[in-house]
Fold each of these.
Amino acid sequence: MIKSKNNEFGKDLYILYPGDHYATQEDCVIGTISASCMVICLYDPIRHIGGMGHFVIPGAMGTEGIYRDEIGSHGITSMEYLMGEIVKLGGDRKKLRAKIFGVANVSGVNSWTDGIKNSIFTFIDEYFRVEHIPIEKEDIGGDRRRKLYFFPRTGKVLRKLLENNQDSSEFIKMEQEYINRVFKEKNTYGKVIVFE
Amino acid sequence: MKHILVIDDSATIRMSVEYALKEIGFPISQAENGRDALEKVNSIKSNGNDIAVCVVDVNMPEMDGITFVKEFRKGDKFTPVIMLTTESEDQKIKEGKDAGASGWLVKPFQPEQLVDVVKKLVR
Ligand SMILES: [Mg+2]
């Protein structure tokens, strides 16, 4: 993530790279560009706290349900990282609303198999249903990259569809590196400590 | 009868922990924050039952996991409490240990590992 001050909004702009998440109650803007990853924006409209996560699940899931699935549990954990930051700031999980973007198949860029793409859609449907978080906007799929600006205090999102090689194409490379990394590390779990 | 108490503000995490721990064979109760969990502890104990182990998230609204452990330890020195969290910083882990936690697992967890730790601590 980088922070920039010089931008069209006259507010601090936090730019998320693939795999990043950030939550805040500052009057700022959080931006990213996504081709095939999902971008999840969550906000608490009462307490004016919001956050964005840019991530992907590392493979195709089985049909058992996301909480019984290893791939699904990685996705749940990615959501937890974002949610944990919102909760630490005092956000109310029961008031949260979601706006979801990304998961495109862009030609010449990473392209999902139907199995993985359907798994990502299933993950989104099931996660937000079980967590009782209403999805206010869902703009996923298609074949274009999306440039997104999220205003965490209000939940407003500005979205622009990009041509394949237009604008910040270094994101394409970073996204591919991130995807390669999480797919390779999908059998990696967190540490386990037993206190003596 | 001993109960496993799963405490997490995320419904999907509570369901995956419950699913992983089913094979241990104890009844499983869920709570969505520390305060809710303290009430569950009281109602389980006042029904003549006991807690086998608590599996506790750290970041939760109302009452976080570290505060829960401190409160729980006022009335129960020995029941194992396993923290299951995205927090992995040494400082946070030390806070948990000092509060009286018995173990610390960082998400994402492998179901077999959680079962192993529970079996090791529940005697
Ligand atoms: Mg939590």
Note: The pocket of magnesium ion is lined by residues A 84, 87; B 8-10, 57, 59-60 (CB under 6 Å).
Amino acid sequence: MSDTAETKIALRGLYKIFGAHPEEVLPLVRDEGMGKADLLEKHGHVLGLRDINIEMQAGKITVIMGLSGSGKSTLIRHLNRLFEPTAGEILVDGEDVMKYGEQDLRRLRRERMSMVFQKFALMPHRTVLENAGLAQSVRGAERKTLEAEATRWLDRVGLEGVGHQYPAQLSGGMQQRVGLARALAANSDIMLMDEAFSALDPLIRTDMQTLLLDLQAELSKTVVFITHDLDEALRLADHLVILKDGAIVQQGEPQHILLHPNDPYIVDFVSDINRARVLRVRSVMKKGAERENPTGVVDAEDTLESVIARSEGDTDAVYRVERDGKPVGVLEMRDLVRALVPMRPAEDTGEAGTAPLRAAM
Amino acid sequence: MATYDGLFRTLGLEDWCARGDPAETSAAPQSMRDLLAQTRGEDPEAGIPLWDTPFPSLDALHESCAAIPQSRELTRGLEQGFLDIRHVLKAGLDPVTQPLSVALRNALWLFQETPWWLMIPLLALLVLGVARSVKLAVFVVATIAFLAFIDLYDEAMQTLSIIFVCAAICVAFGVPIGILMSRSDAMERGTIPILDMLQTLPPFVYLIPLIFLFSVTEPKLYGIAIILYAIVPVIRLTNLGIRLVDKEVIEAADAFGMTRRQKLWGVQVPLALPNIMAGVNQTIMMSLAMVVIASLVSAPGLGVLVLRGIRNLELGVGLVAGLGIVLLAVILDRVTKAALARVDKSTAARQ
Ligand SMILES: Nc1ncnc2c1ncn2[C@@H]1O[C@H](COP(=O)(O)OP(=O)(O)O)[C@@H](O)[C@H]1O
Ligand SMILES: [Mg+2]
């Protein structure tokens, strides 16, 4: 993560409790640390979110991950105030969204944030073109502007010539492309995506991820992406937030979380993935080190899998790591192999790349 | 004396009972049982066997205790109460409902004055317009021609004109009421019992207070009865239709900053339209049912002939008029269902 990046969205001490009298039970949760199960059993309230603090950087993809029911949808719905928090602050561009009146809030939703939904949530009675132009029509734009914008973004997401059809006539993957075009056509800085690809088949899902990354390279929007899928999270995330029972268990650079999970919950989460395919050279190299006669040269962004393939299984190999042609460190195959062993929970949450690797034995 | 004398004696309420009018108690026999007993020459003073003990109803208790009113006092009280507020109600309701009379009179005039050779093609065009089906238009023309052939044309047109006016008013009021209900749970909770009552009251019962309120010569008398009876489904189904709109779609509308108005007319009503149309269909069918009953209070049309059949035992007239009503019901149902199917199909293609 770059230090210079500005914070686009900040959540400070956000709590959400569902039920008849959330304010009354809030102190139990906040000050006495009552858990979700106890709160439900003894007071009949559902703990949605507990003390959420996240800084989301402008132009980056922040991924929020957690199992079903962990509060992901609840969290993302606070950003545009589809849900009202029980306590806490929501800052967008430094402005407190909670202070917004109806007008300001509507402007926020119309112009500064757009949203993509898990089940697409397209308007079934409107054509694909009208759906894609929703933000324009809500703002009262002229039909011509609406069509131009909608067509531009439909084309961009690979849906040329289907504008006159109705959503139900399209496949799920195509419908979600319409959902994406609809969000893009709002020309907002911020895009909220609630499990946007979760309902799609794996292959189509990968395509959509690629599309999103391409778009992101071009548009640099502030994306808040929700998923329950770790592979997806690792592929997309600049910043990864892991939720459990409404609370953040760990957040940070994804590679760092992978190497230093601080909770058994996360260890469970990461135990199934192909670490070699996800981890990158920069995360396991010795930073700044130099070595005479390296076996070869690798790029800092290469995956470990590609390095293993190149080494042909030679565990003594040593590589010089370069970024943009400049040496930045050294990768020893022994470190690489060690990084592939699943971790046990780390007690510290040290900075990415600096904490020592610990093998679980 | 009577069965429950002992009861009041034990309770020590004799004095209180005696305060009731003693003259009335000893006057002419009060109940059927007494009358029967008298004609049979039985002595009411004799003990009543357990088997024949009457239920301690108002009338039975009254016999033993004059202070307790008879049940006819209850009905009389209700009647009096209603008569007392009648002019207030009338003063309030008369002006607001006057347009209904005007509309009904004009519709009746229009449907009867338009010559048949103009009316039938106009109706065919209307069917084409709402149902987009030539087959159905032909069917409607044939049915009306048949009714005209057996000399029921005038009556059928009268019935039809009343239905048109009343159903239109039902929709004009029912859809907005349904929308309001869908927006507020409190409003829904308050309205549903009223709708339940309107739907379960036997249609004849509506007529009773209305007869007291309005003159029988005024069309609004039956107009109100028909509207009260037929408006229920369109309200219910509008409310239901809007509440059934996919929550995710509503959430998307909110997330993109739609105003309540944009959401209502741009999303909720269009998506609720199939349900609303189903409500309109039911409303029209119920208007037809009620317009027949309303002939009791001078609503013109086929119902009058049915009534004649019953009153004068003119079997043939009654049966033919009944057939006419069935035929009208069939074409009204077919046409509204076809319109509904058209709406459904265009939404189905999209869902
Ligand atoms: N409107 C609501 N009323 C009560 N409880 C809710 C509501 N919305 C969500 N919850 C509860 O909050 C928790 C988090 O839900 P959600 O945010 O939908 O999880 P996720 O999106 O991670 O699957 C769940 O326990 C859910 O039952
Ligand atoms: Mg969810």
Note: Residues A 72-73, 195 surround magnesium ion (ligand 2) (CB under 6 Å).
